[in-house]
Amino acid sequence: xxxxxxxxxxxTTNVAPEVFDKMLPWFxxxxxxxxxxxxxxxxxxxxxxxxxxxxxxxxxxxxxxxYFTGSGTEADNWAVKGCALANSEKGRHIITTNIEHxxxxxxxxxxEKNGFDVTYVPVEENGIVKAEKVxxxxxxxxxxxxxxxxxxxxxxxxxxxxxxxxxxGKKVLFHTDAVQAIGAIPVDVQxxxxxxxxxxxxxxxxxxxxxxxxxxxxxKIDNLLHGGGQERTRRASTENTAGIVGLGTAIEKAVNEMPxxxxxxxSIRDEAVQRIMEEIPHVRYNGxxxxxxxxxxxxxxxxxxxxxxxxxxxxxxxxxxSGSACTSGSLDPSxxxxxxxxxxEIAHGSLRLSFGSESKIEDIDYVVDTLKKVVSRLxxxxxxxxxxxxxxxxxx
Length: 396
Known about the structure:
This protein has helices at residues 17-23, 25-28, 39-59, 72-86, 102-113, 131-136, 160-167, 189-192, 241-279, 306-315, 325-328, 335-339, 344-347, 364-380, 383-391; strands at 5-6, 66-69, 93-97, 117-121, 142-146, 173-177, 196-200, 211-215, 283-285, 296-301, 318-319, 350-354. It has 396 residues and is α/β, with parallel strands linked by helices. The strands form 3 sheets. Strands 2-8-7-6-5-3-4 form a 7-stranded mixed sheet, sandwiched between helices. A 3-stranded antiparallel sheet has the order 9-10-12. Strands 1-11 form a two-stranded parallel ribbon. 48% of the residues are buried.
């Protein structure tokens, strides 16, 4: 049997068996519409409300502040568009950072085309935005600040609590995209002080196609979807009962297992990082060395293209990701890597390894040894590396 090592947990995770078992009856047996008044409909409604309580318990809020969505992307769109439109009489200025997920970044671009002004606060070289820079961008007409809790590419954890504290009294709503953070680090909306928070089930062993937007009570926000009375009239669409049940089960499981899981995953990640940095030359470790998600490791390898790297790793049974053209659908390298100061030619050689609950320390030898061979092979085919050897042979 061909060896397979999955190191792309930041992209998605498998559905945990116990999560799948909880979901299964809601596809075939208990298929009633949650809005119906007969028993199978009422049963579905009860299951959804139980999941709502599970999510609320996981992030420390009230169940009636939890709204189920079709994805993290939908929740981000709802947060940004909904707050911007609902509060446009106060002003049309939004603040975010230059490393946000495209669900926020592209939504901000859309609003710019429709008369809003957006400030993109730059992060530092380590991939962390300074709270004081975000706060300095606030104007009298600012209605929303949106800063992700943890970056999906380089794993850096942002100073959400400090930003929230600085916004107190300014009558500016604060949203954080916590899609990468849930299940990886503690997330408590009361402690953070945010008004809105996004999460997505498939990042913590729940099903794809189910997300959540936490909306603090009293937050002024427009609806994104119209057409029904679901989610207390705020999000029209027949509820995905099975997906919501899976999300509730998965988040409860993830939070319960997190204290042990963080330590184990971080030790595996650190072993891989140490060996890669010691055994492969001309490599940069992207993002802050310490203030990052426990499972995230992002590298830039000079003289190679990320697409070729991923394809050759895949041929050797290793699934990973890159910020290069093959994953972005663009000829441009990752906007995150450019934002932290990498030149195009180095940013194109990026590799993200994201470890998860099923990662094993015994796989690191194979991963690093394979990566060494693949990088060496790709550099042998690189005219840039050949030129480098000729110019600086003593450093090779």
